[in-house]
Structures are given as C-alpha cells and as structure tokens.
Amino acid sequence: MPAGIEVLSLRDIGFEQEIEENGLTLAENSKIKADAIYHWLLDNGHCTLDGVFADDTGLEIDALGGEPGVYTARWYRMENGTECLQDAVLQVKGEMEIFAANRAKALRELSGKTNRGAQFKTVITLIRIAKNETVQVEGIVRGQIATEEYGQGGFGYDPIFIPEGYDKTFGELPAELKNSISHRARAMEALVKIL
Question: For the chain, how are helix, strand and coil distributed in percent, rounded to 5?
Fold first, then answer.
C-alpha cells in the first residue's frame, strides 16, 4: 500500500461473523463480503475508517465453460451445478484434502481434452465510506492446466496451474515469484492505482 494508508484486518476491527457467499459470480461474492463488513462497521461505530475492501478469487477453465469459477473452493462437491452429498464427498475433511479433491476433479474433467486454457481471477470490491462509492477491480493471470500435479508449493490448484510465460506450475515456482505475478497481486496493483 502507498505510504499513509493503513490496512486493518477483520481481526483488528473485531469482525468475527461468517459471511454467506451466495453470489453467482466472483464480483457478486466480493461485493457481498465488502457490503457485510461495511454495514457491520457502521453498526459498530467505526465510521471514521475511510473504506473497506474484500475480494473473491476463482479458477476459470476454458474447456469447462468457466468452471469452477465462483465454486472454486468447493467444486469437488458440485455435480451439474448443484452441491451433492455423496459418501465420497463426506469423507473429505480438512483444507489439504479439499484442495486435493478439487485438483483431482479438474484433472478428471479435462481428461482427453486438448484445450487446457484457464485463468485465475480475483475481483476486489472497494467501498469508500466518505464518498459513498463502490468500485471493483480485477486481476487475471492466464495459463494452462497441467496433465498431472507438479510441485508442493502454494495451495489450492497451484500444483496444476502453469501461468503463461512459464514452464512450471504455481506449485513449483518460488513463492516470491508466484506472489509477484499472481491474480491477487494484479488485483491489488489495480486497487492501489485508484486509492
């Protein structure tokens, strides 16, 4: 962030609510989260803050019509656009198992497909309290889905996503490099430009 801008976390302001992310797009979920925090701030006397921002991020696979998209984190539970509760799904517990189940589903869904293009996308919603204005920015990194997992770094889909201009997955690239070229980094750069 530029000098003079202090960022407070949800923990810093005492926000402990769960926010139901029921939007149909990354932009909608980002706005739902920012709106929830904004209204909580107003209700709890934090009107002196200049603004609030929240993000939502997803993987969009070209050959799958943009899936998993808004369902990126829980895609392993999705079947034909709805959540299913199969016995196998119920066995998945913990973040690392969820990540692995999501990656396995992506590789299964792309089996035999030649179009492996994909993109990670982050949408940030900024609500400027004093200006009563809402702005959204996004960051995208294009790439390909690998045919198998490579690397132990990162999280989520990183071991199967090869960013454009590289021959290694996010899971293989050094964290510092990955973080500098990522969709989140690009979204944050866009946010900083409007602050």
Answer: 40, 25, 40
Percent residues over pLDDT 90 in the chain = 69
Locate the domains of the chain by residue range.
24-194
Third-level CATH fold of 24-194? Maf protein (3.90.950)
The dihedral through the CA atoms of 91, 96, 102, 106 has a sign that is negative
Determine whether 195 is exposed, middle or buried from the number of CB atoms within 10 Å of its CB (0-12, 13-18, 19+): middle
Cα distance between residue 69 and residue 27, in whole Å: 11
Q: Could you tell me if 71 and 82 are in contact, meaning their C-beta atoms sit under 8 angstroms apart?
A: no
Query: Which tens digit of pLDDT belongs to each residue from 43-79?
Result: 887 667 788 999 999 999 999 999 999 999 888 876 6
List Cα–Cα distances, 187 to 104, 137, 183, in angstroms.
Answer: 27, 6, 6
Catalytic residues: 56
Q: Which two tokens stand for residue 169?
A: 């997955």
Cβ–Cβ < 8 Å for 152, 99: no
Helix count and strand count (H, E) for the chain? 6, 6
